[in-house]
Every structure is written in structure tokens, then in C-alpha cells.
Amino acid sequence: MSAISLRLPNSLHKRLREVAMRDEISINQFIATAVAEKLSALLTAEYLGQRARRGRRARFLRVLRKVRPADPERSDD
């Protein structure tokens, strides 16, 4: 495990402490979770961008033509 020094404005630190206490977790756990969530979002966007660059519109349209038309489900309203 690594240690980092983090400087936060007092107002942000106060809110962070309040939310962490409300969720019954440590500030360290809150920050670690927040960083993990942000990394996940960024890496997912990067992955999807790479996949999109590999895609071919002609192949997509060929597959899409195989889908039979259907009315939307009532739950789709």
C-alpha cells in the first residue's frame, strides 16, 4: 500500500469528513473508493473508444439488417 500527502481546502475536507462519517467509513476509504470509481470511468471510456475505432459501419449495418421489426414493449414507455 502507498501513502500520499493530499492538500484539500478546509471546506472540502469538512464535507468529506461529514460524508465519510455518515457512511461509516474512513476518509481514506472514501478517497480510495472515489479514485477507483474515477479510474474505472476513464478506463471504460478509453476501452470503448478503442473498440469504436476498430468497428466498421458496413459490418454494423449488415448485422442491424438482420433484426426483425417489432413494436416496443409496454414497459419501454
Shape: elongated
Could you give the order of the helices and strands?
Answer: HHH
Average predicted confidence as pLDDT: 94
Strand coverage percent: under 5%
Helix content: 55-70%
Helical region count? 3
Are there runs of 5+ residues with pLDDT below 50, and where?
Answer: none
The secondary-structure class comes to: mainly alpha
Based on DSSP secondary structure assignment, what is the total number of beta strands? 0
In angstroms, what separates the terminal alpha carbons?
Answer: 48 Å
| Oligomeric composition of the shown chains | single chain
Major beta sheet, specifics? Answer: none
Radius of gyration: 22 Å
Which terms summarize this structure?
77 residues, 3 helices, mainly alpha
